Amino acid sequence: MKKIIIAIIVLVILGLGAWYFWGTAPTTSVEKEIAPVEELAQVVEEKKFIVEGKNFSFSPSMITVKKGDTVSITLKNVGGTHDLKVEGYEVGTQKITDGQEETFTFVADKVGNFEYYCSIGTHRSMGMKGTLIVEE
User: Which residues pair with residue 133 across a beta bridge?
Assistant: First the structure.
């Protein structure tokens, strides 16, 4: 009888130990794994801009974003034939005509000032340009 009581006590202790370690430890480790993912989702933002292109100017002529932002730029052509290229990122639109729009998206992964411009003929030298500022 004494052996049975000792066996029951040992089983109860083992059962409580298993419940403690397997019942609480996984919840804690899962919470720790999820927290950084939620924080990362809050840091990355998508920035959307509409840039109007007309004969020899862009409006706005300055765009500011943070490094790591996803940037979406829509060129809305309100006069003539134009495109929009971003120097240093090698992204941009195709040539579009009056009344057309085109959008492109990229990740701003380099800090600095980058010129955006119309690459058609002498449009850039005539002032059809702007500045993309990517801050740290």
Answer: 64, 113
pLDDT tens for the chain, 136 residues: list them: 888 888 888 888 887 777 676 665 444 444 445 545 555 555 556 899 999 999 899 999 999 999 999 999 999 999 999 999 999 999 999 999 999 999 999 999 999 999 999 999 999 999 999 999 999 9
Distance in angstroms (rounded) separating the CA atoms of residues 101 and 78: 9
Write out the residue range of the structural domain in which residue 34 sits: 1-43
- For residues 2 and 14, membership in a common domain is answered with yes
Cα 98 to Cα 45: distance, rounded to the nearest angstrom:
31
Q: Residues 88, 74: one domain?
A: yes
Same domain, 112 and 92: yes
Together in a domain, 25 and 62: no
